[in-house]
Amino acid sequence: MTRTRSSSEIRDASRRELVRALAVGGTATRTDLARATGLSAATVSNLVTELREDGLIADAGIDNGGAGRPTTLLRIDGAGGALLGIDVAETYIRAVVFDAALAEIGAANVDVDEAWASTDLIADAVLQAVSQAMERSGRQPDHLLGAGLGLPGLTSTDPRRIASTPAWATHIRDLEDRLRPHLPSPLVTANPLQAVGHSEVWFGTARGRSTAVVVNLGTGVGAGIIVEGRVLRGATRSAGEWGHTVLELDGRPCRCGRRGCVEAYVGVPGIRQTLHDVADGHDLLGLHQRDFVQGLGEAADDPAVAETLSRTARYLGIALSDIVAVLNPEVLTLTGWTAWALGDLLLPATRAALAERAPELTAARLALDVSPVRVNSVATGMAVLAFEHHLDTRALARRTRPRLDPAAVPVVTVPAPAASAPQPVAG
Amino acid sequence: MTRTRSSSEIRDASRRELVRALAVGGTATRTDLARATGLSAATVSNLVTELREDGLIADAGIDNGGAGRPTTLLRIDGAGGALLGIDVAETYIRAVVFDAALAEIGAANVDVDEAWASTDLIADAVLQAVSQAMERSGRQPDHLLGAGLGLPGLTSTDPRRIASTPAWATHIRDLEDRLRPHLPSPLVTANPLQAVGHSEVWFGTARGRSTAVVVNLGTGVGAGIIVEGRVLRGATRSAGEWGHTVLELDGRPCRCGRRGCVEAYVGVPGIRQTLHDVADGHDLLGLHQRDFVQGLGEAADDPAVAETLSRTARYLGIALSDIVAVLNPEVLTLTGWTAWALGDLLLPATRAALAERAPELTAARLALDVSPVRVNSVATGMAVLAFEHHLDTRALARRTRPRLDPAAVPVVTVPAPAASAPQPVAG
Lengths: 427, 427
Ligand SMILES: [Zn+2]
Ligand SMILES: [Zn+2]
Prior knowledge:
Chains A, B: This is ROK family transcriptional regulator. The structure is a homodimer. Chain A is an alpha/beta fold. Chain A has helices at residues 7-25, 30-37, 41-53, 119-137, 172-179, 192-203, 263-266, 268-278, 289-298, 303-327, 337-357, 360-364, 377-400; strands at 27-28, 57-63, 71-76, 82-88, 92-99, 104-111, 144-150, 187-190, 211-217, 221-227, 230-231, 331-335, 367-370. The first copy, chain A, folds into three domains: 7-76, Orthogonal Bundle (Arc Repressor Mutant, subunit A); 81-195 and 376-397, Nucleotidyltransferase, domain 5; 207-370, Nucleotidyltransferase, domain 5 (2-Layer Sandwich). Helix content of chain A is 42%, strand content 17%. Chain A is globular, with a radius of gyration of 22 Å.
């Protein structure tokens, strides 16, 4: 039978909803919250009481603005706890500590080398970033409500196929096992696409949307898929691998070892290949990664660059049309550093190619834009995921052990996934 | 804010769940139903009472088999109502009347001509099929709990693009408006891909699955997408247009007017094109549609046919890998007459191409099979959709007007969709 959500699941969703509304909105009255979430006044009241007991909601003064009697404004109490988000990417590790209001209170970056063959080096780098970020936040480990670890995945475990992905990524399961005992608990894991999706659901264009797709453009590319307001994880937590869908049968070689993948055209190495096709030996080909992308943005008047951007926009529009045809989302959002750097240059031709290629009704009312969220979405998304997990767990503890001392909430460890899936999106 | 499901929505889902369990399982005790649906004993009891009052559930004897005391067996009472499912395809219209236990009690087919330019001819054919099916069922119109109309969609309204799709399909909105006053009410509409998805959720491989994809192979091809046990409709009810995603950039012309669509390779005209590429002038090219597909199945030893099937299996596996990469479903099911005729011949090479092409983790635990449901899934799916709508509507009436005379339930007409979306799948 299809699984139906239980009333406790509904209640968990409501609680997340309410916290999300406050975290994003800043302050709100109970009435505002009922309006924003669609929950009943009674449900809002009960949830507020619970969350206040847990120290997550505090008063923020009195609202005299309305027509009725003055009412109490509420806010998330940042001091009520902290959250750790970790982004393990191909070329760097970033750890960020947030307070309970999701304000960044400490962050650290550590560069990593794609050539490192051992997970030990990566694990050490992760722990170094985490300890620096914690130190900068001024919080103690026992302030943490939870942590989220975003791990790059792998699209293949066949060594012949992955010569060009980070060497250590073949041992991603080892890495997770190696890290888990040393990281705060509870620890949730996800792939970066799903983390970015969570970030957009909380802060970006996916808010309030039933079906939305967030496409991340960087070295690797992929999609976070939101259905009914939740990020789709898939049977093996690998949903969103749009970067390795086919754009051209038997086309360009992709670094995943296959041919004709979307990523081989609209990932940064793909864009380099296009410039190479257009003008072999072009100056910009001497630059790498972000410098290359920056260079393209600054040289848009150069005919070879203009042609490269034009082809890239077309490839992107056609590739996006596939995900639009299948999912028929309300909104489609581009994010990641390539999107931020080149979005304005690419969007008009991308929209045109998408409208030309997508089944007409699916594209008719679709909004395609670059995300307004310009932070490291992976770290934020992982912190948000850890927060959601904390809220659900805390509620479970309340249900199973009423009147429990908050300090004694059992630590629920999320089972490790079989492995953690797709291409790094923020490489 | 993301919409959270209300408790009445949960209750509606539970009611559908329970009816589904009985419709599929035949007979069950309340305890069986609680186990099958995951609902509490109290909820099952309340729902059974409601559904019994509505005449939809009847006793089916006593179960003495268990260890405990004898308990009442329940069944759906087929006489409790009837449902009409209508499949408007490119080359035929099929109307089927089901009793409330979803047993077929009357059906009629009317052939249609793709060249008909007027919706009047199609509308007349639909009404003729409906009236024949009703007559054969022996039920009166007032026995109907609802009707479902599956309409082929259009991927373009640009006349230059759709020369090869049915001429009348350009007027699909007119057709719906023209039919609505003459068809039973409430009338729900959906596209055939979504209808097939509903059918698989009730009777097929999507039962009990969180994420599942049902791919329909015929003249046109497309996918029914199930997420969290519900069929994904999308922002403009057009989700599932996998047939018009890109397999080969600037590849074969597709009848939608674009190039390189999946359908141009694995739809029946696409398979014909492949045979033509392999052996121009081959005998089988003289046959059309189902005869052609049947002929392929019978001539699998013919080297040109074998090569055609081998290429088709590869195209199909690669095209399926795209939807697997994006959605990471638990199960992937092939249905439709091409799948039924050629599935056994295609599956081994299709599975191999899919495993080779899909991101490894997404394919690792994926079950790919031909659906065991071998009926007209569109008509069944539309009847099921009408039944779900009836159950939800009836419950709404109960909530808003308690103790209402069942005969006085208000007729709720589902708003017509902007238009009804993708390619016909059962053409
Ligand atoms: Zn690839
Ligand atoms: Zn097409």
